[in-house]
Design brief:
The longest helix is centred in the middle third of the chain and has 24 residues. The protein is mainly α. It contains 6 helices and no strands. Helix 5 runs antiparallel to helix 6. The termini are far apart.
Length: 133
Amino acid sequence: MLAVYQRQIDDLAEAARTLPSTHPPAEALREWMRGFVRYAAVKRGMVALLRSMMDTQTDLFASARTTLRESAGALMRAAADAGEIRADVEPQAILQAMGGICMATDRPGSEASAVALVDLVFDGLRFGVGASA
């Protein structure tokens, strides 16, 4: 169980490293965010078991949070540096938003709703970019 969870975290980290080579910065971030909610859909059946393990496997889950925050941060910085998203949003805020999306769409058949909500959050990251002050 923990090995599956770790592999999914590793896959998200790998996607954060490879997506920028095939997508413009903001699109790389968007695809990574979509991948995050797909990952959450896959682990949906493991949630109860994972929650019970959080108290005993604190290092693993702390490491996973760090990996996700760093992955999101690298993609967000690249997109902000390219002028494609706002620079005033922290990676933790995006992870919290995506976590909320995952909880709100935690039922079979809701992946399309989750992706639509990710796109809404992503549009919020683009809001006001390039506007004159």
